[in-house]
Specification:
Distance between the termini of chain B: 30 Å
Number of strands of chain B: 2
CATH topology of the largest domain in chain A: MetI-like fold
Order of helices and strands of chain A: HHHHHHHHHHHH
Strand content of chain A: under 5%
Helix content of chain B: 55-70%
Number of domains of chain B: 2
CATH class of the largest domain in chain A: Mainly Alpha
Number of helices of chain B: 12
CATH architecture of the largest domain in chain B: Orthogonal Bundle
Radius of gyration of chain A: 24 Å
Shape of chain B: globular
Helix content of chain A: over 70%
CATH superfamily of the largest domain in chain B: MetI-like
CATH superfamily of the largest domain in chain A: MetI-like
Mean pLDDT of chain A: 88
Shape of chain A: flat
Number of helices of chain A: 12
Radius of gyration of chain B: 25 Å
Structural class of chain A: mainly alpha
Largest interface: A-B, 114 and 114 residues
Oligomer: heterodimer
């Protein structure tokens, strides 16, 4: 082998090694959670890297817990309602911000961006009071309402960006025909916005599904908990003997749907996350 | 959720003359904005104002309506017993130090690793799309779950990390990652970096793919060493995207809560400003004092955000 070819092959080898290290780093923790979840409790404290005798007793135990199933149901309801609410509110807002020029537009956009930077804990006491005053404490509605604080700014921004990219001839034709803004939005623009709605909806869903601080603070009883709180509160006899197998089974169960969604919608998620960010 | 948008879409096409149609459109625009603005007023603006107000009272969680004005004594108060209040509380300053330590180290690592991974994935190779999808997994996993997975991996007796390091001869005895005061902040940083590198990578990758290819053609023709090209061409061109990513990560890190709460609970060696504020608000039920802490955290974040928005606007003006 000539030195030049050798160098090229060494470079290629090094490159694939780096890719390998990257993949192990990114994927191993989740893989290890799966390995752990498939072990009977007797084998738990023996470190192993492979799944040799899959044992599903942890999954059976988790799925037999009524409170865990309740938590999954609550999380689904909360996340789906948040997505619906946020998409509806931000769709109309994005039409106004993306397609109409008016005084105060820049200020509204800056305000929305400002809200997205709020530390959640800064509104915790005030929001607690609002939720109690509305009689929503310890209900899913408390979470649906409060989650708009971090989903709305995001959905408004991304949808405004997408909305601004649609061709304007369409809208002009609708205006010429005397269509009202509502008709223009729902009949002309909405059909073109589906990809953007799927992307932003998915990102809002993931954010709502993963939220912890509000869920921990605004719900009290097991029947109202969402999945992250339920997992955080799984405990054993003492802090030093957590039921790790059970915990990992629960973790895998709530994460697998997300991982599948991300793998399927990878391109869309990337475009949503980077939308607008790098156009400046 | 991280929002990553700096520019509004261009609006050149919009009518500039004031016509009846235009007036009707503006009215409709405000009507369309109202539900969103009302919602944000209810969940963001009003609660924030109430938090500011609570910080000047002795409100307790049991009944926030029954609060008396106490001035700035939640922040700083002098009595015969000496100074008291937030600004005189060593625990608070410890939380500030922890938060800054966490922010500087984790954002620094995230930016460097994110950039390196993005450079790696910018190379054309078979299976690139798959690799790019797989590295998104840490980002998709809920923070609570990743904190639990890592606390199992970092478990002092049965954790795989200690097992691996013992096997490789890197350590002589198992390390108590989450309990040891010197190590627990590192444990938190490791988990946070693992989770957020994908986000930074995506931003960097998108920026890399928008770089003009003619610069690279020219550099290659001139036979300039790739490392030099990186420092002289790639990095300066990436700077704006790098700054956007850094600002978003800094704002996110300053309000860190979940990962610390789950990994190390209320341990003082990792307690962040958010954890401190919540502990006083909810566990000690001292809404006045906790709100004072929240207010200070908000001010820190607001100053940084304002600098960022100001710079973003300036950039906008320069461009137009």
């Amino acid at each position: 082998m000539s030195p030049r070819l050798l160098k090229k092959n060494l470079l290629r080898l090094g490159f694939w090694c780096l890719i390998g290290i990257l993949l192990v780093y990114a994927v191993f923790p989740f893989y290890y959670a799966i390995v752990t979840s498939l072990k009977p409790s007797s084998a738990l404290f023996q470190v192993s890297y492979w799944i040799d005798n899959p044992d599903f007793s942890n999954y059976a135990a988790v799925l037999n817990q009524a409170s865990f199933l309740r938590a999954i149901g609550n999380s689904l309801v909360v996340a789906l309602c948040v997505v619906t609410l946020a998409l509806f509110l931000s769709l109309t807002a994005a039409y106004a911000l993306g397609r109409v020029k008016f005084r105060g537009r820049g200020t509204v956009l800056m305000m929305v961006l400002g809200v997205s930077m709020f530390p959640q804990v800064a509104v915790l006491s005030g929001l607690f009071e609002v939720i109690r005053a509305l009689g929503l404490y310890n209900t899913s509605w408390a979470l649906i309402l409060s989650y708009t604080i971090f989903t709305l700014p995001f959905t408004v921004w991304v949808l405004t960006t997408f909305m601004g990219q649609l061709p304007h001839e369409l809208e002009e034709a609708a205006i010429m025909d005397g269509a009202s803004p509502w008709v223009t939005l729902t009949r002309v623009l909405l059909p073109l916005l589906w990809p953007a709605l799927v992307t932003t909806g998915l990102l809002a869903f993931i954010a709502a599904w993963n939220e912890f601080l509000f869920a921990l603070t605004f719900t009290l009883t097991d029947s109202q908990r969402t999945v992250p709180v339920a997992i955080a509160l799984i405990s054993g006899g003492s802090p030093h003997e957590l039921p790790w197998g059970l915990l990992m089974a629960a973790s895998v169960l709530v994460t697998v749907p997300l991982v599948i969604l991300v793998l399927i919608f990878q391109r869309r998620i990337v475009s949503g996350l980077t939308a607008g960010a790098l156009k400046g | 959720m991280s929002v990553s948008t700096t520019l509004a879409p261009d609006d050149e096409y919009l009518l500039t003359r004031e016509t009846p149609v235009q007036r009707r459109r503006v009215r409709a625009a405000w009507l369309f904005l109202t539900p969103m603005l009302l919602c944000l007023a209810l969940v963001a603006a009003w609660p924030l104002l109430r938090t500011f107000w609570f910080s000047l009272t002795d409100a307790s969680l049991a009944d926030t309506g029954d609060a008396t004005f106490v001035g700035l004594s939640n922040y700083l108060f002098h009595s015969s017993a000496g100074w008291s209040g937030l600004l005189a509380d060593p625990q608070w300053w410890n939380a500030v130090r922890n938060t800054l330590h966490f922010t500087v180290v984790s954002v620094g690592l995230e930016i460097v690793l994110g950039l390196l991974v993005a450079l790696l994935l910018n190379v054309q190779f078979g299976g690139r799309a798959l690799v790019r999808a797989l590295i998104l997994i840490p980002w998709a996993i809920p923070t609570i779950v990743s904190a639990k997975i890592w606390s199992w991996m970092l478990n002092d007796q049965f954790g795989i990390i200690n097992h691996l390091m013992l096997g490789l001869g890197l350590i002589d005895a198992p390390l108590a990652w989450t309990a040891d005061a010197d190590l627990s902040m590192w444990a938190v940083i490791i988990v946070d970096v693992w989770k957020t590198v994908p986000f930074v990578t995506l931003l960097m990758l998108a920026a890399l793919q928008m770089l003009p290819s003619d610069c690279y053609e020219a550099a290659r023709v001139d036979g300039i060493h790739p490392v030099k090209v990186f420092w002289r061409v790639t990095l300066p061109l990436l700077m704006p995207a790098l700054l956007v990513a850094a600002i978003f990560r800094i704002l996110d890190s300053l309000r860190v809560f979940d990962v610390i709460y789950v990994l190390t609970s209320n341990s003082s060696s990792t307690m962040s400003m958010s954890v401190y504020a919540r502990q006083h608000l909810v566990e000690f039920q001292d809404v006045g004092y906790g709100s004072a802490a929240s207010t200070l955290l908000f001010l820190v974040v607001a100053v940084i955000a304002m600098v960022y928005l100001y710079l973003g606007r300036r950039q906008l003006e320069v461009r137009s």
